[in-house]
Specification:
Chain C: This is Membrane protein. Chain C: It comes from Actinocatenispora rupis. Chain C: Keywords: Cell membrane, Membrane, Transmembrane, Transmembrane helix. The complex is a heterotrimer. By secondary structure, chain A is mainly α. In chain A, 70% of the residues lie in helices and 7% in strands. By secondary structure, chain B is of the alpha/beta class. Chain B is built from eight helices and ten strands. By secondary structure, chain C is α+β, with helices and mostly antiparallel strands. Chain C is 52% helix and 15% strand. Chain C contains 20 helices and 21 strands. Chain C is elongated, with a radius of gyration of 34 Å. Classes of the chains: A mainly alpha, B alpha/beta, C alpha+beta. At the B-C interface, helix 2, strand 6 and helix 3 of B face helix 11 and helix 18 of C. The structure holds adenosine-5'-triphosphate and magnesium ion.
Chain lengths: 174, 226, 762
């Protein structure tokens, strides 16, 4: 999962201070792993160098936390590309998928699209596994079943998350 | 690639003020299994019923094998459902007064098969679905899963060209669900039948060749998204 | 008690919030029960109707006065006739005293040339097609008869003022001194009472049976509701009480609806008349005791029936388990009511005859109710037994049979009302046909020779007689008129008719051959031989009752009649005009005319009446018939007939409601059948089978019970056993017809339910 792309997503709704970015990140995705300031500023400077963000202005006073960052057009394009791309289906994807869904909702994109894209990718893999199961021996079948159940769990969790968040945004944003 | 056997194009259908379908599309080729997925209340069952000629859409066209279903008389559509289609429904589909065996034999009897022969064929299918032991019981006296398998047997017994199944594995455990799905896919591949399968379960949808997602009465084609 | 109140309240709330299904159920129940209640109230009004009617007809009745005429004396002559095929109560009156008595409902006795008429009569006079009636009664209308002088609102009745009545022994009128028949009605003889008791039982038991089934409408939906209540922790007693709340509500709503039907029907009743019987709305008042019995008994019965019915159903939390599917119905206790009932009736064999014997009404009524109600109790067992054995034929039969097997009780309930009604009607008919001949009074008239007899009591000569004949002949439909002078001839105590007419008339009268003017004939039959020529006779002729002595000429020819006379007076002396002139007979004599005419059309009879009235209003026209039925007996028969028809219709209407309700409960399976392409015809036929099978069983049982019951009752009257099979077939057919009609009426609903949209409705 990419912290850079996540920060880009957070910036899309408007320019922010680095300090705000860290707070917003921790609130939504940090849970047990809050970002270090150092991590934030090194990532931002990488994005600056790549032209994906730009400095919007420096407020009076000293210290790096006085800088405001804004997303550039190139940054938006990068973010679009990432959100629209299916993650390679594999177990334990939830961090990335979750981040994508939240960002989509935050930036006014359709979480359903992300879901559909991901579902297609998951199902394609599941179809392959299902087909392999019908030709394979017992060991093959059991292994395939295990993978299938996990993939299904992922998809279901994702659907549930999308539904939950959609209900939530409806409450929050009128 | 063969021409589609069944096509529903831009189908709209409302129930009173509720728009259940708002421009949905579905196309199925012979021998193909298509899964219809989507949130509850999104219009999956309604799409299935429209595609099968059970419900008439308010607008849009449904064609089967080149003939426009929506233009046929009720009697012709009934005859078509009797001879070409098989159904597994989401709710209360077995005739409660008939025994399970009679329920399975019913489509055959309606098509004019003699009683003896119909019963024999029906029993074979019940056995294939592992429910031969409930043949003499009434639907009210069997478990939900057994009843579901009886319904599946009833749908397959006439060797339909299109099989419509609404949550066919809803009441089944994984093992029996898989058995039913294998029967569906096999019968589709063997006989060139098409299967339209409404399901919530990705593992069940994985048996399909393709999936269509219905959301708010509109269908989303995932092939394009991919 | 508190618990009852609480659970009933819960039940009421469940109905109120139950959505459309619960309301539909309640409405159906209310309508069904309401129809029954209306019928019960109607039956409860019968005593009042009969009493009031009898009171009024007694009050306008009269008895011939004896002794000297008084101040209030009135001469009267009954002129009852027909108009448009309905009876007309007509009385010619003529004041004798200075202060003549007036009949009830009349303010002043009509003077000569005046008449007082009933409202219906006045309406007929004023109607566009009233010309015949106006010509028949060329009198001035001076008043209207009030309700208190009428038997019913639609009666044709008229008092005609006359000045040509004469009151002597053989005059054209009698004398009364006051109106009203002081002698009480002769009361019902025991046989008539038996028929009436059976009639009322045969009307009421089916209605009661029907009401009992009506409160069970929608039991399936209610059972499901109970299961849901059990699931949230209600105990069995609670669910039973909440379920009875719905029955109670249905019964109460049914009472209201029934009272509404009754009041509405009451306002319409004056517009109807059936076979000369019409009823004043005011008379249609339920007996207070019976009305209270209905109002209180029905809700209580509804609750009791529900509680008893629910004992068969164990409402378990996970759905409703019907005990009946595991426990078969037992026969023995179902046999108890009919057997006990027959036990009450059989020992009465030969006890009830027209003349003697008394009828223990209570015992008979109890026996009848037990036997008839027993039919409804036996039916579920019979249906279960027979249907249980049936296998499927085609798909339609299979669906029907399986459905019947799943709920044979419901099927039996559907037809139990019809079954009991038909059983009662057959018993009634059997009893009726058996005793009816005792009530047919032979009139000794032969309707083949002439179709009407016209009697003119004026003393008229040949010219007047010819004018009468010509007047009658002009009336449409009349083929021939034979008018003759009419008197009586006696040899000692033996009497015969004295007839003066031309040869053609005499030929028509007695079939004499080789007649020439101047001839005298004396005719008779083997049983009443002709008077011998040369006998000395006494002749009685006309109003003055002059006794004339005359010897039958020795030259008179004796003839044996080939056929009976029209009037049954087989012995007669016939004189040709010349022979009459040679006898002491006066030229003017009362006239009788035989009319050959086609009178099957009531209008033809009306025309003949009018033609006669145009000659003289007091001329009497009488239809010739082979036999006349005792009027009271005819009334009972008519009443029972109306009742049977009403019961069959009401039960038919409610059957429609029941079947629709049962269909409603089956929407889902019907929609699924439609979804996989079942033909409408297949489903239609299965619905037909589903009704036809229980109906056939019910009717078979009805015929059996009806015939046995009728036979037992007939034995009670000691009449020979005789079954009117064509009548039985008719009643059975009517019952079957009602069911077929109902099925046909439900088919549109079936088609509607087969629309697949119904598939997901819960
Ligand atoms: N007969 C009907 N009358 C009224 N509304 C209906 C009817 N059938 C469907 N609807 C409405 O149409 C919409 C779509 O229903 P449909 O049954 O097609 O959904 P679904 O996708 O099959 O849902 P589920 O997954 O729960 O079965 C819903 O809002 C439903 O309430
Ligand atoms: Mg559905």
């Amino acid at each position: 999962m990419s912290i850079g792309l996540t920060l880009l997503g957070l910036l899309e709704s408007g320019p922010r201070h680095g300090y705000d970015l860290k707070r917003a990140y921790d609130e939504r995705f940090g849970h047990d792993h809050p970002l270090h300031y150092g991590q934030v500023y090194s990532t931002l400077s990488r994005l600056l160098k790549g032209g994906l963000v730009q400095l919007e202005g420096v407020e009076p006073g000293a210290g790096p936390e006085r800088k405001r960052y804004a997303i550039t057009d190139a940054g938006v394009t990068d973010l679009d590309g990432w959100l629209g791309r299916a993650e390679k289906p594999e177990p334990y994807l939830q961090n990335t998928l979750y981040t994508k869904v939240v960002l989509a909702l935050l930036t006014g994109r359709s979480a359903d699209d992300i879901l559909d894209t991901q579902r297609a990718a998951h199902l394609a893999l599941m179809r392959t596994l299902t087909r392999r199961k019908s030709t394979g021996d017992l060991a093959d079948q059991l292994i395939c079943d295990h993978a299938l159940f996990h993939l299904e769990a992922d998809l279901r969790w994702l659907e549930l998350t999308a539904a939950r968040l959609a209900a939530l945004t409806e409450e929050v944003l009128p | 690639m063969t021409a589609p056997l069944l096509v529903a194009a831009d189908v709209r259908r409302s129930f009173g003020a509720t728009p259940a379908l708002d421009g949905a599309n579905l196309s199925v080729r012979a021998g193909e299994v298509v899964a219809v997925m989507g949130p509850s209340g999104s219009g999956k069952s309604t799409l299935l019923h429209c595609a099968a000629g059970i419900l008439l859409p308010d607008s849009g066209r449904v064609t089967y094998d080149g003939a426009e279903l929506t233009a046929l008389s009720d009697a012709r559509r009934s005859a078509l459902r009797r001879s070409e289609f098989g159904f597994v429904f989401q709710f209360g589909q077995l005739v409660p007064e008939l025994t399970c065996l009679e329920n399975v034999a019913l489509p055959l009897r309606l098509a004019g098969t003699r009683r003896r022969d119909a019963a024999r064929t029906a029993l074979e299918w019940l056995a294939r679905l592992g429910t031969a032991d409930v043949a003499g019981k009434r639907p009210g006296d069997v478990s939900g899963g057994q009843g579901q398998r009886v319904a599946v047997a009833r749908a397959l017994v006439t060797g339909p060209r299109v099989l419509f199944a609404d949550e066919p594995t809803g009441a089944l455990d994984s093992y029996h669900g898989e058995q039913v799905m294998r029967l569906f896919t096999e019968s589709a591949r063997d006989s060139g039948a098409a299967v339209v399968l409404v399901t919530h379960e990705p593992r069940v949808a994985a048996y399909a060749d393709r999936e269509v997602v219905v959301r708010d009465g509109r269908s989303v084609d995932l092939e394009r998204a991919r | 008690m508190r618990r009852w109140a609480r659970d009933l309240a819960l039940g009421v709330r469940l109905v109120a919030r139950g959505g459309r299904g619960a309301w539909t159920r309640l409405t159906l129940t209310a309508v069904g029960v309401g129809l029954g209640v209306a019928l019960l109230l109607l039956a409860a009004s019968v005593p009042a109707v009969l009493t009031h009617r009898d009171d009024r007809t007694n009050a306008r009745d009269f008895n011939e006065a004896s002794g000297r005429p008084t101040d209030t004396s009135v001469l009267y002559r009954p002129l009852d006739t027909e108009y448009h095929g309905e009876g007309v109560y007509a009385l010619a009156v003529q004041a004798l005293g200075a202060h003549p008595a007036v009949p009830p409902g009349v303010s002043r006795l009509p003077g000569p040339g005046e008449m007082v008429v009933s409202p219906r009569f006045r309406a007929a006079l004023d109607a566009p097609d009233g010309a015949l009636l106006r010509e028949r009664y060329p009198y001035r209308v001076v008043g209207t008869i009030g309700d208190e002088g009428l038997s019913g609102p639609r009666e044709y009745s008229v008092y005609l003022g006359s000045d040509t009545l004469t009151g002597s022994w053989r005059g054209n009128a009698q004398r009364l001194d006051r109106w009203g028949s002081p002698t009480p009605d002769r009361g019902m003889d025991p046989v008539l009472l038996l028929v009436t008791v059976l009639g009322i039982a045969a009307l009421l038991v089916p209605v009661a049976v029907f009401v009992a089934t009506a409160v069970r409408f929608g039991s399936e939906a209610r059972d499901r509701q109970q299961a849901a209540l059990r699931l949230v922790g209600a105990d069995r007693a609670t669910t039973r009480r909440t379920a009875s709340a719905e029955a109670l509500l249905g019964a109460l709503a049914g009472l209201v609806v029934g009272a509404g039907f009754f009041l509405a029907g009451r306002r319409l009743v004056e517009l109807l008349s059936f076979d000369d019987i019409s009823v004043f709305a005011g008379d249609l008042t339920p007996d207070p005791v019976l009305a209270v019995l209905v109002a209180v008994g029905l809700p209580v019965a509804a609750v009791l029936i529900t509680l008893v019915a629910l004992r068969r159903v164990a409402a378990e939390p996970l759905g409703v388990v019907r005990r009946s599917t595991t426990r078969r119905r037992r026969l023995w206790w179902r046999l108890v009511p009919p057997v006990v009932g027959l036990g009450l009736l059989v020992p009465l064999a030969g006890r009830v005859t027209r003349s003697g014997g008394s009828l223990d009404t209570a015992q008979v009524a109890a026996g009848l109710v037990l036997v008839l109600a027993g039919t409804a109790v036996l039916l579920p067992w019979l249906v279960e037994r027979v249907v249980g054995r049936m296998g499927g034929g085609g798909v339609a039969r299979l669906l029907a049979v399986r459905r019947l097997q799943a709920d044979s009780g419901g099927a039996a309930r559907t037809v139990s009302g019809i079954t009991v009604a038909v059983a009662g009607a057959i018993a009634l008919q059997t009893l009726f046909a058996g005793v009816a001949h005792g009530y047919e009074k032979p009139t000794h008239q032969d309707p083949r020779a002439a179709q009407a007899i016209v009697t003119d009591n004026r003393e008229s000569g040949p010219a007047q007689r010819a004018a009468l004949a010509a007047g009658l002949r002009r009336s449409t439909g009349v083929h021939a008129v034979y008018a003759f002078g009419h008197g009586a001839v006696f040899v000692g105590d033996d009497g015969g008719s004295l007839v003066v007419g031309d040869c053609a008339t005499l030929r028509a009268y007695a079939g004499v051959a080789g007649c020439a003017d101047g001839d005298v004939f004396t005719v008779g039959t083997d049983r009443s031989p002709a008077f011998r020529p040369g006998s000395a006779t006494t002749l009685l002729v006309g109003a003055q009752d002059r006794e004339l002595r005359w010897r039958i000429p020795a030259t008179a020819r004796t003839a044996v009649r080939s056929a009976h006379s029209v009037e049954g007076d087989d012995r007669a002396v016939l004189l040709t005009p010349k022979a009459a002139a040679a006898s002491p007979l006066p030229p003017a004599m009362p006239t009788t005319a035989y009319v050959r005419a086609d009178l099957t059309d009531p209008l033809a009879y009306d025309r003949l009446e009018t033609a006669a009235a145009r000659v003289d209003p007091l001329i009497d026209v009488m239809r010739v018939s082979g036999g006349s039925v005792d009027a009271k007996f005819a009334t009972v028969r008519t009443g029972l007939l109306i009742g049977s028809i009403a019961v069959l219709l009401v039960i038919g209407a409610s059957l429609l409601v029941t079947v629709l309700e049962q269909l409603r409960a089956r929407r889902r399976p019907l929609a699924v059948l439609a979804a996989f392409g079942t033909r409408r015809g297949t489903v239609g036929r299965s619905v037909l089978w589903q009704t036809a099978i229980p109906v056939l069983l019910g009717l078979a049982l009805a015929v059996l019970v009806g015939v046995v019951l009728g036979g037992v009752l007939l034995r009670m009257t000691a009449e020979p056993l005789w079954f009117d099979w064509s009548g039985i077939l008719g009643v059975t057919g009517a019952g079957a017809g009602v069911v077929l009609l109902v099925t046909a009426l439900t088919l549109p609903a079936v088609w509607r339910m087969m629309r697949p949209g119904a598939m997901r409705t819960e």
